Amino acid sequence: MAKHQVPAYRNYFFGDAYKEFLQAICTTFMNCGEKIGDSWYHFTDSFGNLWETILDLIHFDSIFVNIFKAMWFALVFGFRTGGLVLSTILVPLVCIAFSAIQISVILVMMLFVYLGFITFRIADWIFCQIKKVSSNCPNCQRMSRGAKYSLPIYVCECGRKHYKLQPSSYGILARECYCGRKLKTTFFNGRQRLNGKWLCPNCEYNLGEALHHDISIPVVGGPSSGKTCFISMAISEIEKNAMPKYNLNFEYKENASLGDDYQDNKRIMDNGQLPLKTNDTRLRYYQFFLTPKGEKVPNLVSICDVAGEAYESKDEMGGQEGFKFAKSFVLIVDPLSIALYREEVESTIDVSRYGASQRAMEEVLDALVRTVENMKSSDAKGVLDGNVAVLFTKCDIPGLDEKIGEKAISEYMERNEKANRYDAQNVLCERFLTEYEEFNFLNILKGKFKNIQFFTCSALGHVADNSSFEPIGVEDPILWLVDKESSSINFKNKWGK
Ligand SMILES: Nc1nc2c(ncn2[C@@H]2O[C@H](COP(=O)(O)OP(=O)(O)O)[C@@H](O)[C@H]2O)c(=O)[nH]1
Ligand SMILES: [Mg+2]
Ligand SMILES: [Zn+2]
Ligand SMILES: [Zn+2]
């Protein structure tokens, strides 16, 4: 990567200190040179005087006076010779000694500053690891976290870009931007509260905040399986119930420049109408903060919706880099995409009113598994360590409640006192899939993923008839996945394990 100019003033010990100390040393040596010059002048001058007097003596001019003169000049000459010897040997020695002391002092100071910023840089890194600080870009889909976490680019209020706003030779805990603003350089002292912008280090999309823990949840399912309905309803129900039911702070983070349609869909659905059809095949990110009160590092949940058509083609799926970074998935199962079940109910209900998905689930799951495997290292062909919430949608279909819905769960729990509702749900859903001969789907699912929980929901509560929708069970799959990933959220009591 090209090296970026840092628009900040260097720390004194790495910038001006150098210059000042070099200047001081030069001055010392120049003075020293001047001293030697002076001594040399006096030495030659006194030698001249002595020599002239000696010449006069040789010519027997005023002998008595000249003898005294010669003695005097010899004395002066001796004195000046001593001076010359002293200034050529002793003065440089003193100069060198003083300079050496000066250099050591600055080196020690630099060492302290260096150790200082290394220590704080490491401390900041450890903080990021413990608090699982990460960044997830809804534009280029890149996520950075763990050891590979890279801080977003900070854009100062003056517009200058600081590519790595961290402890460095520009300042340990803060640096001074060329505009004069003091910028904090660690999360402990408030780097995240700076007033500028934070950009994705990969594509420079405006990320909004710097400090959060990202949880990325792609919602996977065939065309018309009910992904968009589920996502809109799940987010708006979590928004409604975050306080006081879950005791969590909710804040939606709109990505207006990427065509975020959450608010539009919510409005449309509040009026009993179906959401707009997603027609682009890229991942659409719906992001919101979901954080316990008082927690310093908020969770930023990204629910990713991709038009089901993308599962038709391997290339489309492969292009969705976001899958690579996700550890949690919602796998949508439209009961009407189960061939035997559809055949069974086709005679009693108008399947078209449920937007039945024609795509076999095992194909959707297979496409997902292949995509995730190809994106991760090729030796990860075994079990994928992600969490999967397998979600049966459209459970308002008449008769389903008795098979896998609330009614079935209560009945099962009455008969099996030890089972909690989530165990019951797992048993019932698996039994349903077996009953309708979805063996391949079950095999791939259980063979590839370690952590699986089944859920049932109805995003709408009934077929769309312009009356208001009544979502049932849409929050749980998201909350279960968020709980699995977030260290600050704990719903153990809710799941009973
Ligand atoms: N009855 C009923 N129909 C639903 C439900 N969820 C989705 N649908 C129907 O399924 C269609 C497709 O849903 P959509 O969310 O757009 O599917 P996507 O293509 O997977 O995003 C919708 O137009 C609805 O008619 C539900 O919970 N109950
Ligand atoms: Mg959709
Ligand atoms: Zn600035
Ligand atoms: Zn980006």
Break the fold down into its secondary structure elements and pairings.
Layout: H1 16-58, H2 63-130, E1 135-136, E2 143-144, E3 153-155, E4 161-162, E5 174-176, E6 182-184, E7 197-199, E8 213-220, H3 227-241, E9 248-253, H4 262-270, E10 284-292, E11 299-305, H5 314-318, H6 322-325, E12 328-333, H7 339-346, H8 361-375, E13 384-392, H9 400-403, H10 406-415, H11 421-435, H12 439-448, E14 449-456, H13 475-485, H14 492-495
Parallel strand pairs: 8-11, 8-12, 12-13, 13-14
Antiparallel strand pairs: 1-2, 3-4, 3-7, 5-6, 9-10, 10-11
Helix pairs in contact: 1-2, 8-12, 10-11
The structure holds guanosine-5'-diphosphate, magnesium ion and zinc ion (2 copies).
Any key phrases for this structure?
14 helices, 497 residues, binds guanosine-5'-diphosphate, binds magnesium ion, 3 domains, seven-stranded mixed β-sheet, binds zinc ion, three-stranded antiparallel β-sheet, rod-shaped, alpha/beta, Rossmann fold
